[in-house]
Each structure stands twice: as C-alpha cells, then as structure tokens.
Amino acid sequence: MDFLFLWSFLFNCAIILVIMKYKELFKYARDNNQIIDFEEEAIYFLIEEINHLKRHEIILKMNDDLDNEDILMEKVNRYIKDNIPVQYLLNTAYFYGNRFFVNENVLIPRFDTEILVDKSIELIGSKKCRIVDIGTGSGIIAISIKLKCENAIVDGIDVSTKALDVAKKNAHDLNADINFIENDMLEGIDTKYDFIISNPPYIDGDEYVSDIVKSNEPSLALFSEDKGMYHYKKIIQSSLNNLNDDGVLLFEIPDNKCDALMEYASMYYQDIEYIKDYNNQRRVLIIKNRK
Ligand SMILES: C[S@@+](CC[C@H](N)C(=O)[O-])C[C@H]1O[C@@H](n2cnc3c(N)ncnc32)[C@H](O)[C@@H]1O
C-alpha cells in the first residue's frame, strides 16, 4: 500500500514537472475540447499574442518546451471548456492592420468587413467630406477610415454606451479623431453626410447562429427585426434626409439579404451595385444618390 502510494505520488510529481511541448498544447486542446465550434486557429492566436511569436515561428517550435504554460493553459481551458472567444480572453482583435481592444460589449471584428472599409476608403480618397459609421461598435470602421482619409470628418454612432466606451478607447489608442454619438441610428440627427456607412445588425431571430457567437457576442450587435432588415430599412429611410446630393450609402450585407435589400433600396435610388467577397458572396452594397 505504502509502495503504491509513493509510486502514484512520484508519478504525479513527474507529470507536474514535465513541461508541455508546443505540439502537446494543440493535442491537449483537440482532445479536451468541449465546444462545437473549436478552431485550431484560436490556439495559434493565443500563442501568438501571449508568447509574441509569429505563425511560422510557432510551427518551427512545435517540439520545444512551451513558454508561459500556466497562462496559456488557463486561456485554452476557458476557450475549450467555457466557449469564450479568444479575442475576448485577450481583449484583442486585429482589423485592417491595426490592433483593437475588444470586450463582450462589442462584436468581434470580422475579416469580411475589411471589404466595406476598402471600398469606402477608395471612394472617399482625400476628399474633404463628412462621413458617419452607424453601429460603430468597437469603432473599427470609423477609425480605419479616418486613419487613411485625413480630410474626412468622421462621426461614429452607436446606441450602446458600453460599445461607445470601447470605440473611444480604440480611437484614443490609435490616435484617430472621431466624434462619437450615442443615438438610435440617425433618429433626430440633422447633419448631412457625404458618406453613410454601416455594418448594422442583420440576423433574423430564426437564422442559424453558431453557439460561440450566440452565447458571447452582444445580441444588440447581431439581431435585427423585420427578417433582419429593420436597421437597413431605417438607415435607407434616414438617408433620404441625411445624405447629400451625390452622397454614397455603403452597407455590409449578408448574401441572403442582397436581393431584398436591392429591391427595397430601388424604391428610392437608381444607382445600386454590390461587390462580392473572396467566397464569391455579395458582401457590400453601394447606393449612390445621383440627382
Ligand atoms: C454588427 S455590429 C457592427 C460593429 C462594428 N461596426 C463592426 O463592423 O464590427 C452592429 C452595431 O450596431 C449597434 N446598434 C444596434 N442597434 C442600433 C441602433 N438602433 N442604433 C445605433 N446602433 C445600433 C450595436 O450596438 C453594434 O455595435
């Protein structure tokens, strides 16, 4: 009995003392993952941020002892067991080449939104103009545009005070001069804009949303009534007063609402086109106010 006890004590000590290798952290995450949406990408992101390594450096270090094992294990466990997105665990997301602070009060920036930003920057260029980002969330759209289009006066609107706190922190950290306004879209605002830009909530309550998104990201940022069209319709309606002649309305859209949106917008505007993303999905709607 004593011998068995000693043996198991020594065995446990040995496990504690052996430092995990990089490749073993990936195996641990795969084998112990309790979530449906598990992505190895998330483990890479944790290591990149915590150990300040580039992707290729991690690949080269797979057989090396893991650095910062305690911190990594704690975050990996919260991801694979509690289903918390790693961007929230790290309070970090990258968008359009910049690092942004994120927390559970804002949508995690999506790579697809870079297409909306790219197109907006292309159209705005170095013009002196006034633009608004409606539903600014973490501020990624407004800030990325302001950093490239110095001559634009940029407003960022959100109905969520907590989201605006995040946007203000990001604008401050990235040195972008933005006027943030707490408001229900353009309700009661008289300002005339040259560009109205928005990635509004657009998911219908009946649509499939992955577990990790539904249980962590703010529902205010995800769902919209009227089959996901409420915010688009409201913004189009407001644009009739708030968009200058020759102004442009740019929306991020999901492919499955493109037809309905084009039909709705065509009641008020003639010049409407979409651009596709890298998956051949219609992703950005561009509505020009030609008089
Ligand atoms: C899909 S998220 C987009 C966030 C950010 N612009 C991005 O692209 O990552 C939509 C944002 O709209 C905001 N929002 C929802 N309803 C709103 C309303 N009635 N007026 C203003 N903002 C609203 C949410 O708080 C959320 O930040």
Summarize the structure.
This protein is α/β, with parallel strands linked by helices and 291 residues long. The protein has helices at 2-17, 22-32, 40-51, 55-60, 69-82, 86-90, 113-124, 140-148, 161-173, 211-214, 219-222, 225-228, 230-242, 258-265; strands spanning 93-95, 98-100, 129-134, 152-158, 178-182, 193-198, 243-252, 271-276, 282-288. It is 45% helix and 18% strand.
Give the topology.
Blueprint (H helix, E strand, L loop, with lengths): L1 H16 L4 H11 L7 H12 L3 H6 L8 H14 L3 H5 L2 E3 L2 E3 L12 H12 L4 E6 L5 H9 L3 E7 L2 H13 L4 E5 L10 E6 L12 H4 L4 H4 L2 H4 L1 H13 E10 L5 H8 L5 E6 L5 E7 L3
Parallel strand pairs: 3-4, 3-6, 4-5, 6-7
Antiparallel strand pairs: 1-2, 7-9, 8-9
Helix pairs in contact: 3-5, 7-8
S-adenosylmethionine binds next to helix 8, strand 4 and helix 11.
- Return the CATH architecture of the largest domain: 3-Layer(aba) Sandwich
How do the strands line up in the largest sheet?
5-4-3-6-7-9-8
End-to-end CA span: 92 Å
CATH C-level of the largest domain: Alpha Beta
Structural class: alpha/beta
CATH fold name of the largest domain = Rossmann fold
Order of helices and strands: HHHHHHEEHEHEHEEHHHHEHEE
Could you give me the name of the CATH homologous superfamily of the largest domain? Vaccinia Virus protein VP39
Bound molecules: S-adenosylmethionine
Overview of this structure, please?
This protein is of the alpha/beta class and about 290 residues long. It has two domains: about 70 residues; about 180 residues, Rossmann fold. The chain is built from 14 helices and nine strands. A seven-stranded mixed beta sheet has the order 5-4-3-6-7-9-8, sandwiched between helices. Strands 1-2 form a two-stranded antiparallel sheet. The longest helix has 16 residues. The protein is elongated. It binds S-adenosylmethionine (SAM).
